[in-house]
Amino acid sequence: MLIAIGGVSRSGKSTLANLLVTYFRKNGKKAIIFHQDDFVYPETQIPKIKNRTDWESPHSIDFELFKEVLILFREKFDVVIAEGLFAFYDESATGLFDKKLFVKISKRTFLIRKSMDTRWGYEPTWFIDHIWHSFQKYGRPSAELKNIMTISGEDEFDMEKVIKYLDK
């Protein structure tokens, strides 16, 4: 089973992926997670915005390599979980997934969580706004996307509901 998890930065994508891989492994499945961030082009090849690297652009991701790894992992694992901001951007990659989970949070929750995220040091307000707007433009699943479950990332995940969807 190939599972995609998409959502804005700090929505809980990695948390959900970790919960799922733990669940599947406890149930005897060979499961793995990989992060779309692992498929970022070298910084010199990524677009800039106001002299900052625009990590929030789909042009920062090597989707061809992403798809190659999806196909390779599908042959080696029972469950492959791929998470990232642009999980639903590339239609040819999205078409490979059996199940799709979209983690939705409000802009207010995003701003609160992002302000507490100090991994990258200080980020100017305009850049944090850019992250949100880029997600709105490129990260949201299209209305035509089939077999997708939208779940709230505001609080703890309803894992029973998620597992029920995945087991269909």
Explain the overall architecture.
This protein is of the alpha/beta class and 168 residues long. It is built from six helices and seven strands. A hairpin with a 2-residue loop joins strand 3 (48-49) and strand 4 (52-53). The N and C termini lie close together (12 Å).
Task: Provide a short characterization of the protein structure.
With 168 residues, the chain is of the alpha/beta class. It contains six helices and seven strands, in the order E-H-E-E-E-H-E-H-E-H-H-E-H.
Key descriptive features of the protein:
about 170 residues, alpha/beta, Rossmann fold, two-stranded antiparallel sheet, 7 strands, about 20% strand, globular
Could you say which overall geometry the principal axes of the C-alpha atoms support? globular
Label the CATH architecture: 3-Layer(aba) Sandwich
Instruction: Give start-end ranges of low-pLDDT stretches.
Output: none
User: Can you summarize the main beta sheet?
Assistant: 5 strands, parallel
Mean pLDDT: 92
Organism: Emticicia agri
Protein name: Phosphoribulokinase/uridine kinase domain-containing protein
Pfam families: PRK
GO molecular function, one term: kinase activity
